[in-house]
Amino acid sequence: MEAVSYIILIGSSLLIASVLTSYLALRVGAPLLLIFLGIGLLAGEDGIGGISFNDPQAAFLIGSMALAVILFESGFDTKLASYKAAAGPALSLATLGVTVTTGVVGLGAHSLLGLGWVEALLVGAACSSTDAAAVFFLLRVGGITLRDRVRSTLEIESGSNDPVAIMLTILLVEAAGHGFASPVAIVSELVLAFALGGVMGLAGGWLLVAFINKARFEAGLNPVVTLTFALFVFAATNMLGGSGYLAVYVAGLYAGNVKLRGALELRRFHAGLTWLSQIVMFVMLGLFATPRAFVGMALPALGIAVLLVLVARPLAVWLCLLPFRFSVRETSFIAWVGLRGAVSLLLALVPVLGGLEHGQLIFNTAFIVVVVSLLVQGWTIGAMARVLDLIVPPRRGPVERVELELPGNADQELVAYTVHGKSPAARGQRLPRWARPSLVIRAGAVVPLHKAKPLQTGDHVYLFTPQHRLPLIDRLYGGSRALDQNDREFYGDLALSPDATVEQIAEMYGLPLSLANARLPLRDLLRNEFGGAPELGDRVRMGGVELIVRDMDDDGITSVGLALEPARVTQPRRPLYRRLDAIGGLLRDWWRHRSFQRWKRREKQRGRRPDMQRLAAPPLPEESMENGRGD
After folding, report:
1. Does residue 309 lie within any of the structural domains?
2. What are phi and psi of 532, to 5 degrees?
3. Is the peptide bond before 621 cis (omega within 30 degrees of 0)?
Protein backbone atom coordinates (compact mmCIF):
# COMPACT_ATOMS: atom_id res chain seq x y z
CA MET A 1 0.00 0.00 0.00
CA GLU A 2 2.79 2.40 0.85
CA ALA A 3 4.56 1.64 -2.43
CA VAL A 4 1.38 2.42 -4.40
CA SER A 5 0.89 5.68 -2.53
CA TYR A 6 4.56 6.55 -3.08
CA ILE A 7 4.21 6.05 -6.85
CA ILE A 8 1.01 8.12 -6.96
CA LEU A 9 2.66 10.86 -4.89
CA ILE A 10 5.65 11.02 -7.24
CA GLY A 11 3.49 11.06 -10.36
CA SER A 12 1.15 13.76 -9.07
CA SER A 13 4.12 15.84 -7.85
CA LEU A 14 5.67 15.74 -11.32
CA LEU A 15 2.37 16.81 -12.88
CA ILE A 16 1.98 19.67 -10.39
CA ALA A 17 5.55 20.80 -11.05
CA SER A 18 4.89 20.73 -14.80
CA VAL A 19 1.73 22.83 -14.46
CA LEU A 20 3.37 25.38 -12.15
CA THR A 21 6.47 25.78 -14.30
CA SER A 22 4.28 26.22 -17.37
CA TYR A 23 3.05 29.52 -15.91
CA LEU A 24 6.63 30.78 -15.65
CA ALA A 25 7.48 29.43 -19.10
CA LEU A 26 4.62 31.34 -20.71
CA ARG A 27 5.81 34.59 -19.13
CA VAL A 28 9.37 34.20 -20.44
CA GLY A 29 8.31 32.74 -23.80
CA ALA A 30 9.95 29.32 -23.31
CA PRO A 31 8.51 26.29 -25.17
CA LEU A 32 6.36 24.44 -22.63
CA LEU A 33 7.10 21.02 -24.08
CA LEU A 34 10.80 21.62 -23.48
CA ILE A 35 9.98 22.51 -19.86
CA PHE A 36 8.11 19.23 -19.43
CA LEU A 37 11.04 17.33 -20.89
CA GLY A 38 13.41 19.16 -18.55
CA ILE A 39 11.32 18.22 -15.50
CA GLY A 40 11.61 14.57 -16.49
CA LEU A 41 15.39 14.92 -16.81
CA LEU A 42 15.68 16.62 -13.41
CA ALA A 43 13.57 13.93 -11.77
CA GLY A 44 15.47 11.08 -13.50
CA GLU A 45 18.35 8.98 -12.23
CA ASP A 46 20.94 11.54 -13.38
CA GLY A 47 18.96 14.47 -11.91
CA ILE A 48 18.10 15.65 -8.44
CA GLY A 49 15.12 13.27 -8.20
CA GLY A 50 17.16 10.12 -8.73
CA ILE A 51 14.16 8.20 -10.14
CA SER A 52 15.25 5.18 -12.15
CA PHE A 53 12.98 4.41 -15.11
CA ASN A 54 14.48 2.16 -17.79
CA ASP A 55 11.52 0.15 -19.10
CA PRO A 56 11.27 0.81 -22.87
CA GLN A 57 8.13 -1.36 -23.23
CA ALA A 58 6.23 0.68 -20.63
CA ALA A 59 7.53 3.94 -22.09
CA PHE A 60 6.43 2.95 -25.59
CA LEU A 61 2.99 1.81 -24.36
CA ILE A 62 2.29 5.00 -22.42
CA GLY A 63 3.68 7.19 -25.18
CA SER A 64 1.63 5.44 -27.89
CA MET A 65 -1.62 5.88 -25.94
CA ALA A 66 -0.83 9.52 -25.26
CA LEU A 67 0.00 10.14 -28.92
CA ALA A 68 -3.25 8.46 -30.01
CA VAL A 69 -5.18 10.85 -27.75
CA ILE A 70 -3.29 13.85 -29.15
CA LEU A 71 -3.84 12.82 -32.77
CA PHE A 72 -7.56 12.25 -32.19
CA GLU A 73 -7.91 15.73 -30.72
CA SER A 74 -5.86 17.30 -33.52
CA GLY A 75 -8.14 15.71 -36.12
CA PHE A 76 -11.25 16.58 -34.09
CA ASP A 77 -10.22 20.25 -34.03
CA THR A 78 -9.27 20.48 -37.75
CA LYS A 79 -11.87 21.75 -40.20
CA LEU A 80 -12.25 20.10 -43.59
CA ALA A 81 -12.06 23.57 -45.11
CA SER A 82 -8.37 23.53 -44.18
CA TYR A 83 -7.85 20.57 -46.50
CA LYS A 84 -9.35 22.47 -49.43
CA ALA A 85 -6.53 25.00 -49.25
CA ALA A 86 -3.67 22.90 -47.90
CA ALA A 87 -4.20 19.19 -48.58
CA GLY A 88 -1.80 19.07 -51.53
CA PRO A 89 1.23 20.74 -49.94
CA ALA A 90 0.64 19.19 -46.53
CA LEU A 91 0.39 15.62 -47.83
CA SER A 92 3.41 16.22 -50.05
CA LEU A 93 5.38 17.22 -46.95
CA ALA A 94 3.99 14.25 -45.04
CA THR A 95 5.20 11.75 -47.65
CA LEU A 96 7.97 13.05 -49.89
CA GLY A 97 9.17 15.43 -47.17
CA VAL A 98 9.56 12.64 -44.63
CA THR A 99 11.48 10.53 -47.17
CA VAL A 100 13.87 13.34 -48.13
CA THR A 101 14.50 14.22 -44.47
CA THR A 102 15.20 10.58 -43.66
CA GLY A 103 17.79 10.33 -46.43
CA VAL A 104 19.62 13.58 -45.64
CA VAL A 105 19.73 13.00 -41.86
CA GLY A 106 20.69 9.36 -42.46
CA LEU A 107 23.63 10.49 -44.55
CA GLY A 108 24.72 12.79 -41.73
CA ALA A 109 24.34 10.06 -39.10
CA HIS A 110 26.41 7.68 -41.21
CA SER A 111 29.21 10.24 -41.50
CA LEU A 112 29.15 11.74 -37.99
CA LEU A 113 28.24 8.72 -35.84
CA GLY A 114 29.87 6.00 -37.93
CA LEU A 115 26.69 3.91 -38.01
CA GLY A 116 25.87 1.43 -40.72
CA TRP A 117 23.48 2.59 -43.40
CA VAL A 118 20.39 0.91 -41.96
CA GLU A 119 20.92 2.27 -38.45
CA ALA A 120 21.88 5.69 -39.83
CA LEU A 121 18.63 5.79 -41.79
CA LEU A 122 16.84 4.82 -38.57
CA VAL A 123 18.14 8.03 -37.03
CA GLY A 124 16.76 9.90 -40.04
CA ALA A 125 13.39 8.14 -39.86
CA ALA A 126 13.05 8.87 -36.14
CA CYS A 127 13.76 12.57 -36.74
CA SER A 128 11.75 12.88 -39.95
CA SER A 129 8.31 13.50 -38.47
CA THR A 130 7.21 16.87 -37.15
CA ASP A 131 5.47 16.61 -33.81
CA ALA A 132 1.72 17.26 -33.74
CA ALA A 133 1.76 18.17 -30.05
CA ALA A 134 4.52 20.75 -30.49
CA VAL A 135 3.14 22.29 -33.69
CA PHE A 136 -0.49 22.47 -32.54
CA PHE A 137 0.52 23.91 -29.19
CA LEU A 138 2.79 26.63 -30.56
CA LEU A 139 0.42 27.66 -33.37
CA ARG A 140 -2.87 27.53 -31.46
CA VAL A 141 -1.84 28.38 -27.91
CA GLY A 142 1.12 30.60 -28.75
CA GLY A 143 -1.04 33.45 -30.05
CA ILE A 144 0.52 33.45 -33.54
CA THR A 145 -2.05 34.53 -36.14
CA LEU A 146 -1.01 33.24 -39.57
CA ARG A 147 -2.74 33.04 -42.91
CA ASP A 148 -5.04 30.04 -43.06
CA ARG A 149 -3.11 28.26 -45.81
CA VAL A 150 0.21 28.37 -43.95
CA ARG A 151 -1.32 27.35 -40.63
CA SER A 152 -3.38 24.56 -42.22
CA THR A 153 -0.36 23.21 -44.10
CA LEU A 154 1.69 22.96 -40.89
CA GLU A 155 -1.14 21.45 -38.84
CA ILE A 156 -2.22 18.90 -41.46
CA GLU A 157 1.41 17.91 -42.08
CA SER A 158 2.08 17.37 -38.38
CA GLY A 159 -1.06 15.27 -37.99
CA SER A 160 -0.52 13.12 -41.09
CA ASN A 161 3.24 12.52 -41.35
CA ASP A 162 3.49 10.23 -38.32
CA PRO A 163 2.25 7.11 -40.17
CA VAL A 164 4.90 7.51 -42.89
CA ALA A 165 7.70 7.93 -40.35
CA ILE A 166 6.41 5.00 -38.29
CA MET A 167 6.24 2.69 -41.30
CA LEU A 168 9.76 3.69 -42.40
CA THR A 169 11.07 3.02 -38.88
CA ILE A 170 9.42 -0.40 -38.67
CA LEU A 171 10.66 -1.39 -42.12
CA LEU A 172 14.22 -0.32 -41.26
CA VAL A 173 14.19 -2.20 -37.95
CA GLU A 174 13.01 -5.33 -39.78
CA ALA A 175 15.73 -4.78 -42.40
CA ALA A 176 18.38 -4.50 -39.67
CA GLY A 177 17.37 -7.90 -38.32
CA HIS A 178 16.36 -9.82 -41.44
CA GLY A 179 17.52 -7.79 -44.43
CA PHE A 180 15.48 -5.61 -46.78
CA ALA A 181 12.29 -7.06 -48.20
CA SER A 182 11.56 -6.85 -51.89
CA PRO A 183 10.37 -3.46 -53.19
CA VAL A 184 7.00 -4.98 -54.10
CA ALA A 185 6.53 -6.24 -50.53
CA ILE A 186 7.48 -2.86 -49.07
CA VAL A 187 5.09 -0.95 -51.35
CA SER A 188 2.31 -3.45 -50.65
CA GLU A 189 2.80 -3.10 -46.90
CA LEU A 190 2.74 0.70 -47.11
CA VAL A 191 -0.39 0.74 -49.28
CA LEU A 192 -2.14 -1.70 -46.94
CA ALA A 193 -1.21 0.34 -43.87
CA PHE A 194 -2.50 3.60 -45.32
CA ALA A 195 -5.60 2.17 -46.97
CA LEU A 196 -6.62 0.20 -43.89
CA GLY A 197 -5.83 3.13 -41.63
CA GLY A 198 -8.03 5.46 -43.69
CA VAL A 199 -10.93 2.99 -43.94
CA MET A 200 -10.83 2.07 -40.24
CA GLY A 201 -10.63 5.73 -39.30
CA LEU A 202 -13.69 6.64 -41.36
CA ALA A 203 -15.62 3.62 -40.06
CA GLY A 204 -14.64 4.34 -36.46
CA GLY A 205 -15.55 8.03 -36.77
CA TRP A 206 -18.92 7.18 -38.31
CA LEU A 207 -19.71 4.63 -35.59
CA LEU A 208 -18.66 7.08 -32.88
CA VAL A 209 -20.94 9.83 -34.21
CA ALA A 210 -23.88 7.50 -34.75
CA PHE A 211 -23.45 5.99 -31.28
CA ILE A 212 -23.38 9.35 -29.47
CA ASN A 213 -26.20 10.94 -31.51
CA LYS A 214 -28.58 8.01 -31.19
CA ALA A 215 -27.79 6.67 -27.73
CA ARG A 216 -28.26 10.09 -26.10
CA PHE A 217 -26.15 9.36 -23.05
CA GLU A 218 -25.85 11.66 -20.10
CA ALA A 219 -23.57 14.53 -21.11
CA GLY A 220 -20.81 13.44 -18.70
CA LEU A 221 -20.57 10.03 -20.37
CA ASN A 222 -19.95 11.29 -23.92
CA PRO A 223 -16.25 12.09 -23.32
CA VAL A 224 -15.71 8.55 -22.01
CA VAL A 225 -17.28 7.16 -25.18
CA THR A 226 -15.09 9.25 -27.49
CA LEU A 227 -11.91 8.35 -25.59
CA THR A 228 -12.62 4.61 -25.60
CA PHE A 229 -13.61 4.68 -29.28
CA ALA A 230 -10.40 6.50 -30.18
CA LEU A 231 -8.21 3.98 -28.34
CA PHE A 232 -10.21 1.06 -29.76
CA VAL A 233 -9.81 2.30 -33.35
CA PHE A 234 -6.10 2.87 -32.76
CA ALA A 235 -5.45 -0.61 -31.34
CA ALA A 236 -7.76 -2.52 -33.71
CA THR A 237 -6.20 -0.93 -36.81
CA ASN A 238 -2.70 -1.78 -35.60
CA MET A 239 -3.74 -5.39 -34.97
CA LEU A 240 -5.09 -5.68 -38.53
CA GLY A 241 -1.84 -4.38 -40.02
CA GLY A 242 -2.94 -0.82 -40.71
CA SER A 243 -1.68 2.49 -39.41
CA GLY A 244 -3.40 3.10 -36.10
CA TYR A 245 -2.06 6.64 -35.91
CA LEU A 246 -3.63 7.52 -39.25
CA ALA A 247 -6.88 5.79 -38.27
CA VAL A 248 -7.30 7.68 -34.99
CA TYR A 249 -6.53 11.00 -36.73
CA VAL A 250 -9.08 10.30 -39.49
CA ALA A 251 -11.68 9.23 -36.90
CA GLY A 252 -11.23 12.53 -35.07
CA LEU A 253 -11.34 14.46 -38.35
CA TYR A 254 -14.64 12.84 -39.32
CA ALA A 255 -16.24 13.29 -35.89
CA GLY A 256 -15.18 16.93 -35.72
CA ASN A 257 -16.74 17.87 -39.06
CA VAL A 258 -20.24 16.46 -38.74
CA LYS A 259 -23.12 17.27 -36.38
CA LEU A 260 -22.28 15.68 -33.03
CA ARG A 261 -24.21 16.05 -29.78
CA GLY A 262 -22.27 17.97 -27.16
CA ALA A 263 -19.45 18.74 -29.59
CA LEU A 264 -18.22 21.84 -27.74
CA GLU A 265 -18.09 20.04 -24.40
CA LEU A 266 -16.19 17.21 -26.10
CA ARG A 267 -13.70 19.70 -27.54
CA ARG A 268 -13.02 21.10 -24.09
CA PHE A 269 -12.60 17.63 -22.62
CA HIS A 270 -10.19 16.47 -25.30
CA ALA A 271 -8.24 19.73 -25.14
CA GLY A 272 -7.65 19.14 -21.43
CA LEU A 273 -6.87 15.47 -22.01
CA THR A 274 -4.35 16.44 -24.69
CA TRP A 275 -2.59 18.72 -22.22
CA LEU A 276 -2.38 15.83 -19.75
CA SER A 277 -1.11 13.48 -22.46
CA GLN A 278 1.59 15.92 -23.51
CA ILE A 279 2.80 16.42 -19.95
CA VAL A 280 2.82 12.68 -19.17
CA MET A 281 4.56 11.79 -22.43
CA PHE A 282 7.32 14.39 -22.23
CA VAL A 283 7.99 13.92 -18.51
CA MET A 284 8.14 10.14 -18.96
CA LEU A 285 10.55 10.38 -21.89
CA GLY A 286 12.69 12.75 -19.86
CA LEU A 287 12.77 10.15 -17.07
CA PHE A 288 13.79 7.45 -19.55
CA ALA A 289 16.77 9.45 -20.87
CA THR A 290 20.20 9.13 -19.21
CA PRO A 291 22.18 12.36 -19.76
CA ARG A 292 25.49 10.78 -18.67
CA ALA A 293 25.33 8.68 -21.84
CA PHE A 294 25.36 11.87 -23.92
CA VAL A 295 28.98 12.71 -23.10
CA GLY A 296 30.69 10.78 -25.88
CA MET A 297 28.21 11.53 -28.64
CA ALA A 298 26.90 15.04 -27.89
CA LEU A 299 28.93 16.85 -30.58
CA PRO A 300 28.01 14.48 -33.46
CA ALA A 301 24.37 14.60 -32.35
CA LEU A 302 24.47 18.41 -32.32
CA GLY A 303 25.89 18.27 -35.84
CA ILE A 304 22.95 16.10 -36.92
CA ALA A 305 20.53 18.55 -35.28
CA VAL A 306 22.09 21.46 -37.19
CA LEU A 307 21.94 19.43 -40.41
CA LEU A 308 18.25 18.74 -39.82
CA VAL A 309 17.30 22.34 -39.02
CA LEU A 310 19.39 24.11 -41.66
CA VAL A 311 19.64 21.59 -44.52
CA ALA A 312 17.31 18.58 -44.40
CA ARG A 313 14.08 20.35 -43.44
CA PRO A 314 14.56 23.36 -45.77
CA LEU A 315 15.51 21.09 -48.67
CA ALA A 316 12.48 18.84 -48.11
CA VAL A 317 10.11 21.82 -47.84
CA TRP A 318 11.56 23.51 -50.92
CA LEU A 319 11.20 20.37 -53.04
CA CYS A 320 7.67 19.60 -51.79
CA LEU A 321 6.29 23.13 -52.18
CA LEU A 322 7.75 23.87 -55.62
CA PRO A 323 4.50 23.03 -57.47
CA PHE A 324 2.35 25.09 -55.09
CA ARG A 325 1.78 28.83 -54.88
CA PHE A 326 3.66 29.65 -51.69
CA SER A 327 5.62 32.85 -51.37
CA VAL A 328 9.28 32.93 -50.44
CA ARG A 329 8.49 34.02 -46.91
CA GLU A 330 5.81 31.38 -46.41
CA THR A 331 8.14 28.64 -47.63
CA SER A 332 10.88 29.90 -45.32
CA PHE A 333 8.53 29.90 -42.34
CA ILE A 334 7.20 26.40 -43.04
CA ALA A 335 10.79 25.21 -43.30
CA TRP A 336 11.58 26.73 -39.91
CA VAL A 337 8.54 25.27 -38.14
CA GLY A 338 9.77 21.69 -38.44
CA LEU A 339 9.49 21.00 -34.73
CA ARG A 340 10.54 17.59 -33.48
CA GLY A 341 9.06 16.23 -30.26
CA ALA A 342 7.69 13.16 -28.57
CA VAL A 343 7.00 11.34 -31.86
CA SER A 344 10.71 11.32 -32.68
CA LEU A 345 11.52 9.96 -29.22
CA LEU A 346 8.86 7.25 -29.49
CA LEU A 347 10.18 6.21 -32.88
CA ALA A 348 13.71 6.15 -31.47
CA LEU A 349 12.48 3.63 -28.87
CA VAL A 350 11.63 1.13 -31.63
CA PRO A 351 15.32 0.22 -32.29
CA VAL A 352 15.76 -0.24 -28.52
CA LEU A 353 12.73 -2.55 -28.41
CA GLY A 354 14.04 -4.36 -31.49
CA GLY A 355 17.30 -5.15 -29.69
CA LEU A 356 19.55 -3.39 -32.20
CA GLU A 357 23.20 -3.03 -31.20
CA HIS A 358 23.17 0.76 -31.36
CA GLY A 359 19.55 1.21 -30.29
CA GLN A 360 20.39 3.32 -27.24
CA LEU A 361 22.72 5.52 -29.34
CA ILE A 362 19.87 6.14 -31.80
CA PHE A 363 17.56 7.15 -28.93
CA ASN A 364 20.16 9.46 -27.37
CA THR A 365 20.80 11.12 -30.74
CA ALA A 366 17.08 11.67 -31.32
CA PHE A 367 16.76 13.08 -27.79
CA ILE A 368 19.44 15.72 -28.42
CA VAL A 369 17.89 16.57 -31.81
CA VAL A 370 14.49 17.09 -30.15
CA VAL A 371 15.97 19.33 -27.44
CA VAL A 372 17.76 21.46 -30.04
CA SER A 373 14.63 21.69 -32.19
CA LEU A 374 12.42 22.78 -29.30
CA LEU A 375 15.05 25.14 -27.97
CA VAL A 376 16.00 26.83 -31.26
CA GLN A 377 12.91 26.56 -33.46
CA GLY A 378 10.30 26.47 -30.70
CA TRP A 379 11.71 29.52 -28.96
CA THR A 380 11.94 31.60 -32.14
CA ILE A 381 8.77 30.70 -34.01
CA GLY A 382 7.02 33.95 -33.08
CA ALA A 383 10.06 36.07 -33.88
CA MET A 384 10.50 34.31 -37.23
CA ALA A 385 6.86 34.96 -38.15
CA ARG A 386 7.32 38.64 -37.36
CA VAL A 387 10.63 38.93 -39.23
CA LEU A 388 9.04 37.37 -42.31
CA ASP A 389 5.94 39.61 -41.97
CA LEU A 390 3.56 36.67 -41.78
CA ILE A 391 1.55 37.82 -38.76
CA VAL A 392 -1.94 38.81 -39.90
CA PRO A 393 -4.56 40.76 -37.93
CA PRO A 394 -6.72 38.39 -35.90
CA ARG A 395 -10.30 37.98 -36.99
CA ARG A 396 -12.76 39.41 -34.54
CA GLY A 397 -15.66 37.19 -33.72
CA PRO A 398 -17.36 35.33 -30.91
CA VAL A 399 -15.40 34.84 -27.73
CA GLU A 400 -17.21 31.62 -26.90
CA ARG A 401 -19.99 29.49 -28.28
CA VAL A 402 -22.15 27.25 -26.12
CA GLU A 403 -24.11 24.45 -27.74
CA LEU A 404 -27.51 23.87 -26.16
CA GLU A 405 -29.67 20.79 -26.54
CA LEU A 406 -32.98 22.49 -27.34
CA PRO A 407 -36.22 20.57 -27.94
CA GLY A 408 -36.91 19.43 -31.46
CA ASN A 409 -34.52 20.44 -34.23
CA ALA A 410 -33.99 24.05 -33.15
CA ASP A 411 -30.66 25.13 -34.62
CA GLN A 412 -29.61 27.75 -32.07
CA GLU A 413 -26.36 28.64 -30.37
CA LEU A 414 -25.60 30.75 -27.34
CA VAL A 415 -22.79 33.10 -28.34
CA ALA A 416 -20.70 35.36 -26.12
CA TYR A 417 -18.98 38.51 -27.45
CA THR A 418 -16.74 41.15 -25.97
CA VAL A 419 -17.88 44.37 -27.62
CA HIS A 420 -15.10 45.98 -29.67
CA GLY A 421 -14.59 49.70 -29.18
CA LYS A 422 -15.04 50.57 -32.86
CA SER A 423 -17.85 48.13 -33.58
CA PRO A 424 -21.26 49.39 -34.78
CA ALA A 425 -22.79 48.18 -31.50
CA ALA A 426 -20.42 50.32 -29.40
CA ARG A 427 -21.05 53.35 -31.65
CA GLY A 428 -24.76 53.23 -30.81
CA GLN A 429 -26.05 51.71 -34.05
CA ARG A 430 -29.54 50.30 -33.70
CA LEU A 431 -29.34 46.50 -33.60
CA PRO A 432 -31.76 44.26 -35.48
CA ARG A 433 -34.18 42.32 -33.30
CA TRP A 434 -32.40 39.04 -34.06
CA ALA A 435 -29.02 40.50 -32.94
CA ARG A 436 -30.06 41.98 -29.59
CA PRO A 437 -28.37 40.48 -26.54
CA SER A 438 -30.18 38.33 -24.00
CA LEU A 439 -27.68 39.14 -21.25
CA VAL A 440 -25.11 41.91 -20.72
CA ILE A 441 -22.27 41.77 -18.18
CA ARG A 442 -20.47 45.06 -17.51
CA ALA A 443 -17.56 45.38 -15.07
CA GLY A 444 -18.30 41.94 -13.69
CA ALA A 445 -21.97 42.65 -12.90
CA VAL A 446 -25.15 41.75 -14.76
CA VAL A 447 -26.81 44.84 -16.23
CA PRO A 448 -30.54 44.83 -17.02
CA LEU A 449 -31.13 45.06 -20.74
CA HIS A 450 -33.08 48.33 -20.56
CA LYS A 451 -30.16 49.95 -18.68
CA ALA A 452 -27.42 48.49 -20.89
CA LYS A 453 -28.17 50.79 -23.84
CA PRO A 454 -26.00 51.93 -25.41
CA LEU A 455 -23.51 49.09 -25.22
CA GLN A 456 -20.01 50.03 -24.12
CA THR A 457 -16.55 48.89 -25.05
CA GLY A 458 -15.64 45.72 -23.15
CA ASP A 459 -19.23 44.68 -22.40
CA HIS A 460 -19.77 40.94 -22.51
CA VAL A 461 -22.98 40.21 -24.38
CA TYR A 462 -24.74 36.86 -24.72
CA LEU A 463 -27.38 36.12 -27.32
CA PHE A 464 -29.15 33.23 -28.99
CA THR A 465 -28.81 33.05 -32.75
CA PRO A 466 -29.04 30.61 -35.66
CA GLN A 467 -25.65 29.57 -36.94
CA HIS A 468 -26.17 31.12 -40.39
CA ARG A 469 -26.42 34.61 -38.84
CA LEU A 470 -23.11 34.45 -36.98
CA PRO A 471 -21.07 36.24 -39.72
CA LEU A 472 -23.52 39.17 -39.61
CA ILE A 473 -23.41 39.38 -35.82
CA ASP A 474 -19.60 39.17 -35.92
CA ARG A 475 -19.62 42.45 -37.85
CA LEU A 476 -22.01 44.16 -35.46
CA TYR A 477 -20.02 43.37 -32.31
CA GLY A 478 -16.54 42.79 -33.72
CA GLY A 479 -15.91 46.07 -35.49
CA SER A 480 -14.41 46.97 -38.87
CA ARG A 481 -10.93 45.87 -39.84
CA ALA A 482 -10.06 49.04 -41.71
CA LEU A 483 -10.28 51.23 -38.62
CA ASP A 484 -7.01 49.97 -37.12
CA GLN A 485 -3.64 51.00 -38.57
CA ASN A 486 -2.20 47.49 -38.56
CA ASP A 487 -5.33 46.16 -40.21
CA ARG A 488 -5.21 48.95 -42.78
CA GLU A 489 -1.69 47.94 -43.78
CA PHE A 490 -2.81 44.37 -44.30
CA TYR A 491 -6.32 44.81 -45.74
CA GLY A 492 -5.96 48.13 -47.57
CA ASP A 493 -7.16 51.73 -47.22
CA LEU A 494 -10.52 51.38 -48.96
CA ALA A 495 -13.16 48.69 -49.30
CA LEU A 496 -14.47 47.90 -52.80
CA SER A 497 -17.39 45.82 -53.96
CA PRO A 498 -16.26 42.49 -55.43
CA ASP A 499 -18.82 42.99 -58.21
CA ALA A 500 -17.07 46.12 -59.52
CA THR A 501 -15.24 45.47 -62.78
CA VAL A 502 -11.56 46.03 -63.43
CA GLU A 503 -12.48 48.66 -66.04
CA GLN A 504 -14.53 50.65 -63.52
CA ILE A 505 -11.75 50.66 -60.92
CA ALA A 506 -9.10 51.56 -63.52
CA GLU A 507 -11.18 54.48 -64.77
CA MET A 508 -12.02 55.71 -61.28
CA TYR A 509 -8.43 55.72 -59.97
CA GLY A 510 -6.53 56.31 -63.22
CA LEU A 511 -4.91 52.87 -63.31
CA PRO A 512 -3.46 50.95 -66.28
CA LEU A 513 -5.96 48.59 -67.87
CA SER A 514 -5.48 45.17 -69.43
CA LEU A 515 -8.13 44.73 -72.14
CA ALA A 516 -8.26 40.97 -71.48
CA ASN A 517 -9.38 41.60 -67.90
CA ALA A 518 -11.40 44.78 -68.44
CA ARG A 519 -14.86 43.27 -67.93
CA LEU A 520 -13.88 40.89 -65.17
CA PRO A 521 -15.40 41.57 -61.72
CA LEU A 522 -12.74 42.00 -59.03
CA ARG A 523 -13.98 38.77 -57.46
CA ASP A 524 -13.18 36.78 -60.60
CA LEU A 525 -9.87 38.57 -61.17
CA LEU A 526 -8.61 37.57 -57.72
CA ARG A 527 -10.01 34.08 -58.00
CA ASN A 528 -8.30 33.52 -61.35
CA GLU A 529 -5.02 34.95 -60.08
CA PHE A 530 -4.84 32.47 -57.22
CA GLY A 531 -6.00 29.31 -58.94
CA GLY A 532 -9.60 29.44 -57.73
CA ALA A 533 -8.59 29.37 -54.03
CA PRO A 534 -7.99 32.94 -52.82
CA GLU A 535 -7.40 33.66 -49.15
CA LEU A 536 -7.70 36.65 -46.88
CA GLY A 537 -4.78 38.98 -47.53
CA ASP A 538 -3.96 37.78 -51.06
CA ARG A 539 -2.73 40.71 -53.18
CA VAL A 540 -2.59 41.59 -56.87
CA ARG A 541 -0.60 44.56 -58.19
CA MET A 542 -2.53 46.94 -60.45
CA GLY A 543 -0.32 49.81 -61.48
CA GLY A 544 0.71 51.73 -58.36
CA VAL A 545 -1.94 50.19 -56.11
CA GLU A 546 -2.86 46.71 -54.95
CA LEU A 547 -6.13 44.84 -54.82
CA ILE A 548 -6.49 42.72 -51.67
CA VAL A 549 -8.87 39.95 -50.62
CA ARG A 550 -10.39 41.80 -47.68
CA ASP A 551 -13.24 39.56 -46.54
CA MET A 552 -14.65 36.15 -47.42
CA ASP A 553 -17.45 33.79 -46.54
CA ASP A 554 -18.35 30.26 -47.61
CA ASP A 555 -19.51 31.54 -51.02
CA GLY A 556 -16.30 33.39 -51.85
CA ILE A 557 -14.96 36.96 -51.73
CA THR A 558 -17.35 39.48 -50.15
CA SER A 559 -15.08 42.53 -50.00
CA VAL A 560 -11.97 43.72 -51.85
CA GLY A 561 -9.45 46.11 -50.32
CA LEU A 562 -7.53 48.78 -52.19
CA ALA A 563 -4.05 49.68 -50.92
CA LEU A 564 -3.16 53.13 -52.23
CA GLU A 565 0.40 52.83 -50.89
CA PRO A 566 1.28 49.10 -50.91
CA ALA A 567 2.26 48.04 -47.41
CA ARG A 568 5.58 46.78 -46.22
CA VAL A 569 4.28 43.21 -46.31
CA THR A 570 4.47 43.27 -50.11
CA GLN A 571 7.93 44.72 -50.50
CA PRO A 572 10.34 42.24 -52.08
CA ARG A 573 12.97 40.42 -50.06
CA ARG A 574 15.89 38.40 -51.28
CA PRO A 575 14.37 34.93 -51.63
CA LEU A 576 15.52 31.85 -49.80
CA TYR A 577 13.42 29.59 -52.04
CA ARG A 578 11.77 29.96 -55.40
CA ARG A 579 8.84 28.36 -57.13
CA LEU A 580 9.46 26.03 -60.06
CA ASP A 581 8.09 28.47 -62.64
CA ALA A 582 10.26 31.25 -61.20
CA ILE A 583 13.37 29.06 -61.43
CA GLY A 584 12.55 28.20 -65.04
CA GLY A 585 12.04 31.86 -65.90
CA LEU A 586 15.35 32.86 -64.32
CA LEU A 587 17.24 30.14 -66.17
CA ARG A 588 15.55 31.05 -69.47
CA ASP A 589 16.32 34.77 -69.07
CA TRP A 590 19.90 34.01 -68.07
CA TRP A 591 20.41 31.78 -71.14
CA ARG A 592 18.89 34.38 -73.49
CA HIS A 593 21.09 37.10 -72.05
CA ARG A 594 24.20 34.90 -72.33
CA SER A 595 23.36 33.93 -75.93
CA PHE A 596 22.86 37.57 -76.87
CA GLN A 597 26.23 38.58 -75.37
CA ARG A 598 27.91 35.73 -77.27
CA TRP A 599 26.30 36.83 -80.54
CA LYS A 600 27.36 40.45 -79.95
CA ARG A 601 30.99 39.40 -79.38
CA ARG A 602 30.97 37.33 -82.59
CA GLU A 603 29.61 40.29 -84.56
CA LYS A 604 32.39 42.51 -83.23
CA GLN A 605 35.03 39.92 -84.11
CA ARG A 606 33.71 39.85 -87.69
CA GLY A 607 33.94 43.63 -87.90
CA ARG A 608 30.21 44.14 -87.95
CA ARG A 609 28.29 46.59 -85.80
CA PRO A 610 25.24 44.96 -84.20
CA ASP A 611 21.92 46.61 -84.94
CA MET A 612 20.99 47.47 -81.36
CA GLN A 613 17.68 48.96 -82.40
CA ARG A 614 16.64 45.73 -84.08
CA LEU A 615 17.96 43.36 -81.44
CA ALA A 616 17.79 44.54 -77.85
CA ALA A 617 19.45 42.52 -75.12
CA PRO A 618 16.98 40.81 -72.82
CA PRO A 619 17.52 42.30 -69.36
CA LEU A 620 18.85 40.22 -66.52
CA PRO A 621 16.05 39.19 -64.14
CA GLU A 622 15.34 41.53 -61.26
CA GLU A 623 13.92 40.73 -57.85
CA SER A 624 10.19 41.40 -58.09
CA MET A 625 6.94 40.23 -56.66
CA GLU A 626 3.79 40.59 -58.69
CA ASN A 627 1.32 39.34 -56.11
CA GLY A 628 1.03 38.40 -52.48
CA ARG A 629 2.07 34.79 -53.01
CA GLY A 630 4.69 35.28 -55.72
CA ASP A 631 8.42 35.67 -55.61
Report:
1. yes
2. 80, 5
3. no
